Amino acid sequence: MAIKVGIPRALLYYRFYPLWKTFFTELGAEVIVSEPTTQEIFKKGLKKFVGDTCLPIKMVFGHVITLADKVDYLFIPRLVSIERDTCLCPHFAGLPDVLCAIMPDLPPILDIHFNVRKKGATMKSIYEAGKRFNKNPFKVYRAYQKAQREYEKFLKRIKDGITPQEAIKIFDGEEVSPPEKKKGGLNIALIGNPYTVYDSFSSLDIIQRLRKLGARIYTSEMIPDEIIEEKVRTLSKKIYWSFGKETVGSAFHFLDSPEIDGLIYIISFECGPDSLLKEIVDDKARKNKRVAYMSLVIDEHTGETGMDTRLDAFIEMIKRRRAKK
Amino acid sequence: MNIYLGIDVGSISTNLAVIDEEKKVLAWEYLLTGGRPIEAVQRGLKEIEKKLPSQVEIRGGGSTGSARHLTGILIGADTVKSEIIAHAVAASHLIPEVKTIFEIGGQDSKIIIVRDGVVVDFAMNTICAAGTGSFLDHQAQRLGVPIEEFGNLALQSKTPTRVAGRCTVFAESDMIHKQQTGHATENIVAGLCQALVRNYLNNVGKGKELLPPVVFQGGVAANKGMKAAFEEELGYEVIVPEYYHVMGAIGVAILAQETIVETKKTKFKGFEVSEVDYKTRSFECTGCPNLCEVIEVLMSGEVISRWGDRCGKWEVLEK
Asked: What's the rounded Cα separation, in Å, for the pair A271 and A190?
């Protein structure tokens, strides 16, 4: 029987799932993903976490709990840096340890180290992860190559204008009907950490809500890396958070794009990096008189009225501004 | 005479306003929601009907506020709009040159930036709803000052006490400490107004271009102490309009009038809805682990609307 590897549907699942899944499947493992976040998963996560942290990290706990008795291994990579000159928030680096400390009875964690800033470290950690399934380094490397190709395809689909959630569905073989283009509809850009924006439970399904209001959605992932690099170069200092760089770079790009009508920055309440980056985006957006801008801070809310009021008003404001012109 | 009705059902108060074709306010009604929005709307309709001349025809109706969807279903609203837009529309109509709107209600506060009669930016309180009407109400009760007297008392103060304004939990404990060390009530009350204004400008108004004329509306605008504290902080006059407490209702009545220009025919069910037996009930859907709380609205025992489900399967009613 195939070895079962569990991937929590949280954090960087929304960015790397096709890569990870292909890699493990190629090595003969069976990949099991936790269900999309539900009230139950959410509550489990909140209950288990000791101390106070951001919502996305609490969510991981819920997902891990639901996976625990279904899998042989949990895949919780120790992500330090996923590209040169930037790093992820320390929660990512410490996550495998925190999980073990709070829940000692979990299945073994594949906590491979991802740190591209150390030479050769990535290939070494890929072999570390793969050797449990196949001891032959060549086969592990081949599996990774295949995974990278699938991953490139996934990224390409997003660049063509669908959301990461939809690109994941296509990767999993589900049918996705592209949202219909409405004439005179509004183009709204959503920015923020992928795990905050795309977990439809914690974001109160903001994407669907905006679509119902007739908006077409643009996200950071749709913007080519070169543009993001070019935009953040206008700042006096480098942004050393990976997603932060993406958020700010794409925000600047959207503010300069004639087709974008509105920009919404979604922040989870206790996010340290976002609380700083928000100031940079706010400042730039304030000077821009054309693109409407708002930031939404989310936490453990499940009441939808507050979200609706803000989105309704935002869309209505843009429409009225247009009508006046 | 053709008239338009607007209803704003908020957490604390339910407000109704009736305007004529010239957008002149003919009647208004302000009552407490008391956690029962349906009853409040029905009571409000009965009361406002009495104030209207006999020969009127309702050409359109609209609803706003946090219970706008529920209210929209009850009355058959022609337009259901967020209170931010409603407040801005009313303020721009009554004070056409308005550039900034402060609105502090029972449970939330907002700032709306208007340029040339159009909303260009807005913000609402984020995670924390500190310093809104409910908190002032609670403090007035604790200090034994009737809320109506709160503002006048604040104006009597010559040396307002410094009160921590960042968080209402700290503000309350700070106020108690100040009381215990002998500060006079009027000074504490004035200090609290200053703290709330500071908190509002720092959090809700943060980074916004606050240009006069500023219009201050919502239930809290009744508090003269708050108006004075705003003026002191900003250095210019803050206008509290005549209908400050029913601006949302006036705004959505104007929006209903705009809608009717296009749709021609109103969906308004008439004042009789105040007599109809409306009920709501909720149940937990067990179709998936989301366990959504689904709300049903019943008219004379028949389900007329449902919401609250994430997947939308209950929203569609079987005919």
From this structure: 17
